[in-house]
Design goal:
The chain is of the alpha/beta class. The protein is built from 11 helices and 8 strands. Helices cover 42% and strands 19% of the residues.
Length: 279
């Protein structure tokens, strides 16, 4: 596993990318929230160097810089991020796109616009649905009115209280599939990271309003009809319940018992197997 910094001049933004393998089939892995590129470490290790893997920290998360105010987290801005990232990484062959959680929010619209650059897609527990009824904390984080912003900012500050003690307790209870080391890492990278919390608020204020997902259902259908697509879904997800795994007509769906939301961490071998099946 190699860590490198990549500068995207058109945003501008510098972010961390974890890379592994030397195989000819490139794999781009987009992580969830509150997490970083490190969520893919087990999957990359399970692939055992057979594929060229690239796991970036998404804008403002993990070890990425916080993007400038001109970067508004719109679908257009996120497409620019991925366009520039793929160019900077010199990925020239069709790639396998693997997404989890907000990685799907960012990656699926990009893939739908670049199907000639996509070899296959693996989707794990991601919000890629029109009119998705967001869970409570997402709706709080998304508020744009002055009072709502103040409440969201306060909640974010509380997340880091006691060196992340509240986050560690609450998030650990909600996500029992997380090993202690990953819970500690998320506490450090998110709960104790003001940049990541600010960037998360910026993202949620943009993506929670339903208009952000206009047309996404047809994008997903077009992807599934055009390139091999595998759905690896964990049961017991408190954020995106298993019924959403049925929304990918024509895709190969694998349900994982007790995997929960954090499938790349709890079920890395199964995700790696889905990637291998597409290459």
């Amino acid at each position: 596993m190699v860590e490198k910094r990549v500068h995207l001049s058109s945003i501008p933004l510098t972010t961390r990318v974890l890379t592994s393998g030397r195989g000819s089939s490139p794999v781009l892995l987009l992580h969830g929230s509150p997490d970083s590129a490190a969520e893919w470490t087990r999957v990359m290790n399970a692939l055992d160097g057979a594929h060229s893997c690239f796991a970036p920290d998404l804008p403002g998360l993990g070890a990425s810089e916080e993007p400038p105010n001109s970067f508004d987290y719109s679908r257009a801005a996120l497409n620019v991020f991925l366009d520039d990232l793929v160019t900077a990484l010199e990925i020239r062959e069709p790639l396998v796109l693997v997404v989890h959680d907000i990685g799907g929010v960012m990656g699926i619209p990009w893939a739908a616009e670049h199907l000639d650059r996509i070899r296959g897609v693996v989707i794990t527990n991601s919000v890629v649905f029109e009119r998705f009824p967001w869970f409570g904390v997402a709706r709080v984080w998304a508020r744009k009115d002055p009072l709502g912003r103040a409440q969201a900012n306060l909640r974010m500050r509380l997340v880091g209280a006691g060196e992340g003690l509240l986050f560690r307790r609450v998030f650990g209870r909600i996500s029992p599939e997380l090993p202690p080391a990953d819970l500690e890492r998320m506490t450090r990278e998110f709960a104790m990271n003001p940049k990541a919390k600010t960037s998360t608020l910026r993202l949620f204020r943009q993506m929670v309003p339903s208009a952000f997902f206009d047309g996404v259902d047809s994008m997903v259908a077009r992807i599934v009809a055009t390139v091999p697509t595998r759905i690896i879904w964990g049961r017991g997800d408190p954020y995106i319940p298993e019924r959403y795994s049925k929304a990918f007509a024509g895709a190969h769906v694998t349900m994982l018992e007790h995997a929960g939301h954090w499938v790349p961490i709890s079920s890395a071998n199964e995700v790696a197997a889905a990637i291998r099946a597409l290459t």
